[in-house]
Amino acid sequence: MTTETLSPRTPGKPRSTMPREVVRRRRYGGHAWHPTLGTGPLPRVLTLLALALMTVIWLVPFGWGVDTSFKTEVDASASGADWIPKAGFTLDAYRTILGQGNLPVWAVNSVVIAVCVTAITVTISAMAAYAFSRTLFRGRRVLFAVTIASIMVPPQILIVPLFRQMLAMNLVDTYAAVILPQVVAPAMVFILKKFFDGIPRELEEAARIDGAGSFRVFWSVVLPLSRPILAAVAIFVFINTWNNFLWPFISTSDPQLMTLPVGLSTVKDSTGLRNAQESAASILGSIPLLIVFMLFQRQIVRSVATTGLGGQ
Amino acid sequence: MASVSTPSRQAAAGSRRAGSRWAAATDRRRSPGGAGWLFATPFLVFFTLFLLVPIGIGLWMSFTDASLTGHGDGVFVGLDNYTEAFGDSQVWQTLGNTVWFTVLTTVPLVIVALVMALLVYTGMPGQWLWRLAFFASHLLPVAVVFQIWSMLFQPDRGMLNSVLQTFGMDGIAWLTDEKYAMWSIGLVTLWWTVGFNFLLYLAALQAIPDHLYEAAALDGAGAWRRLWSVTLPQLRRTTALIAVLQVMASLKVFDQIYLLTKGGPNGATRPILEYIYDTGFTNYRLGYASAVSYVFFGIIIILSLAQLKIFSRRED
Predict the structure, then answer these.
(1) I need a surface site. Which of A132, A204, B177, B269 has the fewest CB within 10 A?
(2) Straight-line distance from the first to the last Cα atom of chain A, in angstroms, rounded to the nearest whole number
(3) In this protein, which residues make up the domain named ABC transmembrane type-1 (chain A) (predicted)?
């Protein structure tokens, strides 16, 4: 349903009949009423308090991790909830982690794997979606039905046969083993096909009359018109791949090939005596995606909204 | 899944109608059949190699005693693995844990997400901050979630128990007491993943046409009335989809449980995916692990179809 908001034929929600001024004031929290909020200051204050409370609850765990990463190991394993450590704040944990750990290697692996998976997934999914949407090859209906049906197959149940297959193909502990099984995204083909279906055929026919072949039409007409949905799919795939745990965990045992989520999970010991270092590693491991989110919040929010319901 | 099949049927019907007209127009000049294959082939190759083939291999393996240590593909044992699986108390217990986790997490993950979205949608200043606060935890790798919450949960010096003690309560053995372990995992899961549903709800709220609210306001509906009579009914379809997706996602739980409790204490939190993992990769019984996977897959298919039926009936 949300894909419709990005469809080239639907320009968003129906235009409001209210005077522009009222709409503007309402949207930006002026004096006029809001759809879900009463007039008057009390509801606004209560809403703000509720929001602030939930925000604090949601940020405290992460804040505690950040706080711990700046403590000495003694303070980090001390009992209680002291935000200000007795021995003061220190960068020791970060120094140690960056000096000895495999963290940079894992970060590079995560980047390489997530970029490869995203590039391959978007390319092959867009091509297949174009084929299903715009060409008439034999068997297209059956193949599309099979693709749609396969959305129901949870990749998790395939870990055993996939691992067996990787053994047989001699790929265990290679980038290929981590990357290849992750590029099959039938849900993304479905989402892209739905979008391509909405692109007016007149544009394509005009190009064909000018002598453009199928590839030319795809490249110069369809793809440029599909930038928002391609970005949405790419962002969605990238985040999922970046944080994927189970398959990279199974298909790699060499620390030099691990991704951040897998590598970080191996450094934790059960004693809690290296809390500061482990927290520092965790914070460093979360930073890349958090920065990406802060820079591209709008696009990421839209990506989740357009692909989330169809893309899981 | 409801989200997938209903629109696809409409889309297929739509494209068939439009397609035939278009086909008639283009077929005279060229037959794009070959090009279609060319475009579809790369995806179909990967799709076959890494989805269809593993499905086949897994099915075959589930009828053999294949093991990770042995050479070759194991001996055909017929339905032995499946008979064993249905009589295996571990299968039932881990399946029960998985269902319990799903029940425990789905309701709060839908309701808290809805509350968050409604609060943010009021247009309070600081949109950027609220979205960051509620969604950012979804971007953390599971290992980071594990690190943070294992510190908070530490029984003798952890933060949560210190807070409880300042209020005069006894500390809780969050992850090591069978009574609490699954609840603690549920709490972590809520904190970690609610942001995703929150964004879906926020998008759905923003798609509700303004004129509905305007009409309600003209009829004298107050804020609560508008919430009950406009907003929530408009969100019904989204709620159904989010609930379906959440059930499916919760059934596939593995990462956070595996890291936080390893399925303990005493198997109280072990989900079926971890049993499959343990059977296949710790005990090397690939054949049996495949059979359990397929039993689990069967359950997922049945649940999906049931949900599809329930929700498609409700929409009529």
Answers:
(1) B177
(2) 14
(3) 107-296
Tell which residue, A160, A197, A258, has the closest CA to residue A6.
A197
Share of chain B above pLDDT 90, in %: 39
The CA radius of gyration of chain B, in Å to the nearest whole number, is 25
Q: What is the per-residue pLDDT across B99-131, written as a single tens digit (0 to 9) for each?
A: 999 999 999 999 999 999 998 888 778 888 898
| A126 close to A226: Cβ distance less than 8 angstroms | yes
Closest residue on chain A to B239 (Cα) = A309
Single-letter amino acid code for the residue at B277: Y
The CATH class given to the A101-269 domain equals: mainly alpha
State the amino acid at position A39 in one-letter form. Answer: T
Which chain A residues touch B136 with a CB distance below 8 Å? 62, 290, 293
Reduced 3-state DSSP string for B272-315: HHHHHHHHHHHCCCHHHHHHHHHHHHHHHHHHHHHHHHHHHHHH
CB contact residues (below 8 A), chain B span 198-217, against chain A:
199-200, 202-211, 213-214, 217
Contact residues on chain A for B235, CB-CB shorter than 8 A: none
Nearest-CB residue to A47 (from B31, B124, B132) = B124
In this structure, chain A runs to a length of 312
pLDDT at B32 over 80: no
